[in-house]
Fold this protein.
Amino acid sequence: MNYENIKLEKGMYGIGNKSFTSVLENLDPSENYKGTNLEKLDAYQRQLKRFGIKVSGAGADAVEKFFGTSESAVLFPEYIARAVKQGITSNSVLPSVIAAKTIIGGIDYRTVQSSTDSQPSSNAVAEGAELRKVNVTTDPNLVKLIKHGRVFSSSYEAIRFQNLEVLTVILKKIGSDIASEQLEDVLAVISKDITMIDVSDSAKGKLSYNHLLQFWAELNPYKLNVMVASNLSVRDILAVSEMQDALAGLDFQVSGKLVTPLGAQLICAPSMKNSGIIYGFDKNCALQMIQSGGIIIDHDKIIDRQLERAAITVTAGFSKIFANSVKMLAYA
């Protein structure tokens, strides 16, 4: 098998915009293993098998198993990156709010904005009449990319005998924290130059089902399929009498999944301190995520067991695609 003969070295990290696994896949394509007992493994997982490293489940190895040879040590930074990524994806709400994701190799990115000519009185196009235009223009400003991460601080001696499954839990928490910080970045973007629907005079601090219906109607022709609010505002939404529906209550009690009476996904953003504000948008049109590379690890330090100041970072930014697909409801 070819995977047993690949020479692993530090230089396999940081090749262009490719991940370590992508580099391995070029050297050892997974398609070559179709019909074998290794077909469910990717190129990285085959390397773990090669060196007998088990990272999860019963009998998971200790950290020092990665450092049995100079080549197997090269696999450790990718293990860290994968564990952090699991934490980001499993605890992040970003997949629920992002319409498109773009990976770039640098730190500068200029996105596009889109708008449609005003709605004619009739959807029918008369003979010889012009069709409505969708205007796509370059945003004059660069997308601001923000770096989030943590410095992994531990001596090799402190973790060498630690079970890898336990270390995975710690790394996944790092990923979860990064995802929470990225949600704050999303809120900063969607709140800028946003159309506000102010119902505070009629609400007098109390949210009603009619207010939610008005929110839904004002977003037309876009779909109100995501709402983001603070802890207090989420409580106000859940307190609306229509939320007492038996099926909605059962879903919340059994799965913990918040669903509004309008069928939108309800996301609680702890970083929103003020109540009385709800963001609503069409997740299929609203936001683009731009990420510079993948999860960046100080691979040299980690491979050389210099873990005291090893950085784990993700650099990304967000931009609106259709500005009118995001609006804000103010009820207090």
Observations:
- The first strand starts at residue 100 and ends at 104.
- The chain has a mean pLDDT of 87.
- The chain has eleven helices and twelve strands.
- The first helix runs from residue 20 to 27.
